[in-house]
Design brief:
Mean pLDDT: 93
CATH architecture of the largest domain: 3-Layer(aba) Sandwich
Low-confidence stretches: none
Strand order of the largest sheet: 8-7-6-10-9-11
Shape: elongated
Amino acid sequence: MKSPDTRFFLSPLLIGEQILSEEESKHATKVCRAQVGDILLVCDGKGKLAEAEILEANPKACKILIKSISILEKEPPRLQLAIACLKDDANEEVSFHVAQANVSKIILLRTEHSQEPKNSDLSRLVRRCHLKSRVSLKQSMKSWETEIEGPIELKDWLKTVEGTLVLCDINGQSQLENLDSNVPTTLLIGPEGGFSEKEIELIKNVPNAKTQLLKLGNTRLRARTAALLALGKLV
């Protein structure tokens, strides 16, 4: 049988006999119908990849043998996305699509106009976004998993950001100037209705980052749409 055309997750990734999680085991044996002797591609989301032979095709605890591990990329990508918390399942949708690209991190921001429950730590949202990111890691065959961080207040996050900050703004430029691939770059997307004027001034005057304004066209875009269109200009 042909080995499954996807990757499976295991961390830490170690030489020798290992056991896949129940979720990964079920996916390998029930969904992909992998059998004893088949080879799985196993990743750790930290730049490493291994070929693993199935020793026991147990749907609850699939036993594999890893003989060698390859390092595909030593460092994570330098591009990340910071996006205001959105309502319903919009952040999950963004996480699923963005995490298929070489984006190191998605930061969920609390802003004046963001639409999340203000009395919640959003632990369920963060957990669901993380699950979407894990699925995208395996399906897209990336080396590094896209981390999910937050929620964090915009004003607090701006104190920590460095490198280049790309703000999507209708008054911006259609093309960015002199982006250095060796410098961390953060794409910043506001909530539905946009950032407040006060927030925009804070963003434009971040002390440790250079802010560029990126124009995505002349039409009004939903936040989730803006994130994907802007990402397409950067990757």
